[in-house]
Amino acid sequence: MTAYIVPALILFIAAFGAYKRTDIYAALTEGARAGMKVCASIFPAVLIMLTAISMVRASGAIETLAGVCAPLLRRIGIPEECLPLVLLRPFSGSGALSVGSEVIRDAGADSLTGRIAAVMLGSSETSFYTIAVYSAYLKLKDTGCTLKAAMLADAAAFIMSGVAVRLLMK
Amino acid sequence: MLMSVVICVLMAAAFIFGAANGRMEAVSAASVSGAAEAVALLLRIGGNICLWSALMEVMQRSGLAAAVARLLSPLIKIIFGGYAEDAEAREAISQNMAANLLGLGSAATPAGLRAAARLSELSRRRGEKPHGAYLLIALNTASVQLLPTTVAAVRSGLGSAAPYDILPAVWLTSAVSAAAAVLAVKAFRGAEKR
To answer: Which of A146, A147, A166 is best to mutate for the B interface (most B CBs within 10 A)?
Structure first.
């Protein structure tokens, strides 16, 4: 069933555009150009973060840390390979993307761990960055409960990733 | 600044643990391969980022994104309560939510900032803490995305047979996390009142 979602959505977007007499081809090429700018703008951060992360991984630090946290993580159904992703996700979008793709590559894209890492990546946000942007714009002196709420939401997303993958995927 | 601290901690951890575990050779090699890996990652996912950026441009130009925003207004009334009575706030919130749902990151932030400014203005007039803005910020930190195209691109690049088969799990997880964000803000507000 999930195989139908994306082709149907693409068809719907195109059909709606044609119905509204939008110049679809011009919009597509213009949008793709904007996508190239996105790639260019995330590349420096991905490069720095992937270099740092692969050095940390090679040093064995993650195994040490994961060894400490593994019993707790196992209890809530999160594979210990996902620990670096959990730690980095609130700080850095490109960093999380880099670490997440390493986890998915090492565990296998269609493995349980690979899927949980993918769901974590797809259902959480760079919380600290988001709070920083909004509070800077609003000149908020007090971010109130947003940080606590965001951390709770992230924790819910991480725990739920393990539950949802086991529940919804064979 | 935060990211500078993160990077310093990572570099220090790599050096200290590399020395302690006798794996400095591997750490040294990783500094080269990590950079090459970054280029490979971008090549794997870059095409799909451009493709969805293109489709999203069509959604915006055809008015589809605006139509989705209109569909969201009942949900906004439930989440934002009294704040949703203000038409300007409601419109900006719905644009922000629609853009997030559709994965239009670059459109979500401007609408979100406009909504947050309006919401905190409403609170200021009533002499209250900006709880409406807190709600909006919390919702934006718990991304609810219908189509995580970047993650799908990563999975496809790494040999997944069906990169989008994670969709139902992503939806369930996002919904739970967004609900947690909203309930947390409301609960903290309730605790303050007492």
So the answer is: A146
Task: List the single residue in A with minimal CA-CA distance to B152.
Answer: A118
Asked, for residue B66, whether it belongs to a domain, the answer is yes
DSSP string, A104-160: HHHH-TTSHHHHHHHHHHHT---HHHHHHHHHHHHT-S--TTHHHHHHHHHHHHHHH
A132 touches A81 (CB < 8 A): no
Distance CA A127, CA B141 (A): 5
Q: Does the distance separating the beta carbons of A5 and B167 come in below 8 Å?
A: yes
- B82 or A63, which is more confident? B82
CA A40 from chain centre, in angstroms, equals: 18
Whether the Cβ atoms of residue B105 and residue B65 lie closer than 8 Å to each other: no
Residue pLDDT, tens place only, B96-153 = 998 888 877 767 888 899 899 999 999 999 988 899 999 999 999 987 888 898 899 9
pLDDT at position B2: 67
Confirm whether B34 is domain-assigned: no
Instruction: Over range A105-128, report the average pLDDT.
Output: 93
**In terms of pLDDT, which residue wins out, B96 or B2?**
B96
Is A153 within 8 Å of B64 when comparing Cβ atoms? Answer: no
**Would you state the pLDDT for residue A1?**
67
Residue type, B96: N
Q: Nearest CA to CA, how far is A9 from chain B (Å)?
A: 10
Which residues from chain B sit within 8 angstroms of residue A32, using beta carbons? 50-51, 53-54
B28 in a structural domain: no
Does the distance separating the beta carbons of B49 and A132 come in below 8 Å?
Answer: no
Q: Is residue B12 part of a domain?
A: no
- Residues in chain A with CB shorter than 8 Å from the CB of B16 are 59, 61
How many CB pairs below 8 A link A and B?
Answer: 336
pLDDT of A29 strictly over 90: yes
The total domain count for chain B is 1
Quote ipTM for the complex.
Answer: 0.84
AA letter at B94: S
CA dist., res. A46 & res. A100, Å (int)? 12
Phi, psi (5° rounding) for residue A21? Answer: 55, 40
